[in-house]
């Protein structure tokens, strides 16, 4: 979605949900900062306990966000 294209958009919705659940998250490509890429990777952690702690450590990401 960061690239404005949903993951697995070519698949039927149920199949896409299964792919998202079972496969590792896609990597960001294109012109994105290292800190933004790091933040997104932390948000996409599949283990909820890890996600919150990792995101909280990287609160400086907000300075990189801008409206679409």
How does the SSE layout of this entry go?
Blueprint: H1 13-22, H2 34-43, H3 48-57
The total of beta strands comes to 0
Beginning-to-end CA distance, first to last residue: 12 Å
The string of secondary-structure elements, in order, is HHH
Mean pLDDT value: 77
Amount of helix: 40-55%
Spans with pLDDT under 50 lasting ≥5 residues? none
Radius of gyration: 13 Å
Q: How many helical stretches?
A: 3
Number of structurally distinct domains: 1
- Name the structural class: mainly alpha
| Fraction of residues in β-strands | under 5%
**What does the overall shape look like?**
flat
Biggest sheet architecture: none
Structure overview:
With 68 residues, the chain is an all-alpha fold. The chain has one domain (13-64). The chain is 44% helix and 0% strand. The chain contains three helices and no strands. It has helices at residues 13-22, 34-43, 48-57. The chain starts with 12 loop residues before the first helix and ends in an 11-residue tail after the last helix.
Task: Compose a concise summary of this entry.
With 68 residues, this protein is mainly alpha-helical. The chain contains 3 helices and no strands.
Name a few traits of the molecule.
68 residues; mainly alpha; flat
